[in-house]
């Protein structure tokens, strides 16, 4: 009945307001907000620990009563009528005590409810204060609680201000720790967040820009990694070349012995033999080596040119995509 009266009253109010100006409504989910407040989680944990301890005490007491009942059942034939009645009275008394203890801890006005109210009230006060501030700043006419007894058959997401309430609570707690300069920066940040709340398109645009920024940063990282790889390859090739030249110099100094680097030389190496090289053969080997190295340099330059062209093409496409966006 109360819900019907409340809904009728709200409908009448909406009609009255709509004749003058648009009605601005919002709603919150109190359960969701409380779960996001750190103090609530800590308080809930404390209460859960107490409740668990009380349940354990109740279970121990119930087991004791069950043991008394089993004992009486077993020994009944051996006991006098007076002893049976005495034990039954003791069992009944302990059962009554157990019920009273359960009511004391978990009843409608028991310790669990009372302590939950006492511990959660300061947190709820923070939530209500934040809701009041948001309502005044953004000119809300009505704000409902989605988790309350008032049934909301449909609620569009854009009217949910639960996240704004959570932010407002966090802001209030953080302001006490900030310097004047930090406070000014925080206020600018809060103003931007509030603007995004009022304009979802702005928030979506900001998200898209952030995604593009991340994509650009990823592309730059990939290019940097590729450059480092190429530099490392060049260093390795230069080191191998230096080592090869040093080996050739050492071979010349030693006289006439050199290890061949062509397929025929490899066959000779497999046979574990070393040839004596004539001056004419030496000249041919030097020319062949020069030709081979020239071919390798040409191939490396061609690969590098191809890589640079690919990078330029990728950068060009990225710029075109940015212009389109």
TrEMBL record:
Record-linked InterPro entries: Chaperone_Skp (IPR005632), Skp_dom_sf (IPR024930)
Chain intervals for the UniProt region annotation (Disordered): 177-202, 234-306
GO MF term set: unfolded protein binding
Pfam families linked to this entry: OmpH (PF03938)
Gene Ontology BP annotations: protein stabilization
Basic and acidic residues: compositionally biased ranges: 177-192
Keyword Transmembrane in record: no
The entry's keywords: Coiled coil, Signal
SUPFAM superfamilies per UniProt: OmpH-like
Coiled coil regions in record: 44-104
GO cellular component: cytosol
Key word Coiled coil present: yes
Family statement drawn from the similarity comment of this UniProt entry: Belongs to the Skp family.
The protein, known as: OmpH family outer membrane protein
């Amino acid at each position: 009945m109360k819900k019907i009266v409340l809904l009728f009253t709200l409908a009448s109010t909406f009609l009255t307001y709509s004749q003058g100006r648009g009605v601005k409504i919002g709603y919150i989910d109190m359960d969701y907000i409380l779960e996001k407040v750190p103090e609530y989680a800590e308080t809930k944990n404390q209460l859960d620990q107490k409740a668990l301890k009380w349940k354990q005490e109740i279970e121990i007491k119930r087991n004791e009563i069950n043991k008394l009942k089993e004992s009486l059942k077993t020994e009944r034939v051996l006991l006098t009528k007076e002893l049976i009645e005495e034990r039954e009275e003791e069992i009944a008394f302990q059962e009554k005590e157990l019920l009273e203890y359960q009511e004391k801890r978990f009843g409608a006005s028991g310790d669990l409810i009372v302590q939950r109210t006492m511990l959660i009230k300061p947190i709820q006060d923070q939530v209500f204060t934040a809701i009041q501030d948001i309502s005044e700043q953004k000119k809300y006419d009505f704000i409902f609680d989605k988790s309350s007894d008032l049934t909301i058959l449909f609620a569009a997401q854009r009217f949910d201000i639960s996240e704004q309430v959570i932010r407002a609570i966090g802001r209030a707690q953080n302001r006490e720790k900030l310097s004047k300069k930090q406070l000014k920066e925080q206020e600018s940040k809060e103003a931007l967040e509030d603007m995004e709340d009022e304009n979802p398109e702005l928030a979506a645009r900001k998200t898209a820009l952030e995604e593009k920024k991340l994509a650009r940063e990823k592309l730059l990282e990939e290019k940097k990694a590729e450059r480092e790889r190429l530099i490392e390859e060049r260093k390795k090739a230069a080191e191998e070349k230096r080592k090869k030249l040093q080996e050739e110099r050492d071979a010349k100094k030693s006289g006439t012995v050199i290890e061949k680097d062509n397929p025929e030389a490899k066959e000779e190496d497999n046979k574990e033999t070393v040839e004596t090289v004539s001056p004419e053969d030496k000249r041919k080997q030097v020319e062949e080596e020069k030709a081979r190295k020239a071919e390798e340099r040409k191939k490396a330059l061609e690969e590098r040119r191809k890589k640079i062209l690919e990078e330029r093409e990728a950068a060009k496409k990225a710029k075109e995509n940015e212009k389109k966006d």
